[in-house]
Amino acid sequence: MNYVYLLRCADDTYYCGWTTSLKSRVAAHNAGTGAKYTRSRRPVQLVYFEEYEDRHEALSREWHIKRMSREEKISLMERGRKMLETGIKGTLETTVTKDKTACHVGSGELEVYATPMLIALAEETAWKSVAAYLKPGMGTVGTKMNLDHLAATAAGRKVRCETVLTGIEGRKLVFSIEVFDDAGKVAEGTHERFIIDNEKFMAKAVSRGR
Hints:
The chain has two domains: 2-79, GIY-YIG endonuclease (3-Layer(aba) Sandwich); 89-207, Thiol Ester Dehydrase, Chain A (Roll). Helix content is 31%, strand content 36%. It has helices at 22-31, 36-39, 55-66, 70-79, 102-105, 115-130, 198-207; strands at 2-8, 14-19, 45-52, 89-95, 138-149, 158-169, 172-181, 184-197. The strands form two sheets. A five-stranded antiparallel beta sheet has the order 4-6-7-8-5. Strands 2-1-3 form a three-stranded antiparallel beta sheet, with helices on both faces. The radius of gyration is 22 Å and the shape is elongated.
């Protein structure tokens, strides 16, 4: 993975750079071995970064950010001020209407909350919880769901889904999931999502198999 990053220096100026390892590069800057500019402006703090799979895209983006004014760099940080990190929580609540029951969606015969609808609620809660932390044009897609549906919820009752971002591995995000109704916990598990470029992802999906 390639990263373009912004550091806030001790003199309140900003430095933009490119690296393949944020942690080691920031450490190098603070050790005085990162760049001539930051050597006399330590300590530095990571305040913004973007991820790119392609090295040339990252270097091009670095070139553009380096030529931004101070005000433009601050504006960029403000737009992306929320940095993706573990511990981010999401909560969504819904009512089990008849169109969300097993007998309606075809996953069973009974008028209880359908497992596919519960999974959809869990995915929605997860992706919405991190959407504001992604740069414009980026999104997430679900890649894995491991969910235990523990108890049935009858139509008319409310359910609440709670997610926590527990892991970040490059572009892979791992969430814990708990779902409750007014009688207690009805589901628990884990969910994985992958950060993607929306436009590129859709183009690949449309062209797949052609």
